[in-house]
């Protein structure tokens, strides 16, 4: 696959389609099995509270992966993402109910770089709080 977005068709400020990602306790259990990260702060409410958390929290790497889906869906090829980094600013708190939590992600092209690449800045929030900071991806466009 190659990127479906042409470099010449993108301008600084181009907004990518925003997305929301629901996260339930079942989501966390499935992610723990796939990743091998069985830290009890991600599934055991009693333990999470004992270590000072308000409740069970989503895995940071899960949050990071969910956010970059906005970029990979936009560009059409996950391999077009050549760099990606974030700072974890707040945890995604996942209550034990039918709704769970919601990670809301928006993104826009912040810079056009050399060699047909763009830098995309992402904003990820949950429950009205920014959960990722300095979230940036460099994407190789067509």
Describe the structure.
- Strand 3 and strand 4 (117-126) form a beta hairpin.
- This protein has helices at residues 25-35, 45-50, 60-75; strands at residues 15-23, 81-88, 101-112, 117-126, 129-140.
- The longest helix has 16 residues, at 60-75.
- The protein contains three helices and five strands, in the order E-H-H-H-E-E-E-E.
- The protein has a five-stranded antiparallel beta sheet.
- It is elongated and about 55 Å long.
- The protein has 142 residues and is α+β, with helices and mostly antiparallel strands.
Using only C-alpha atoms, the radius of gyration works out to 16 Å
How can the largest sheet be summarized? 5 strands, antiparallel
Helix content: 10-25%
Strand content: 35-45%
Separation of the first and last Cα atoms: 11 Å
Structural class: alpha+beta
In short:
This protein has 142 residues and is an alpha+beta fold.
Question: What labels describe this entry?
Answer:
single chain; 142 residues; alpha+beta; five-stranded antiparallel beta sheet; 36% strand
Give a topology summary.
Layout: E1 15-23, H1 25-35, H2 45-50, H3 60-75, E2 81-88, E3 101-112, E4 117-126, E5 129-140
Antiparallel strand pairs: 1-3, 2-5, 3-4, 4-5
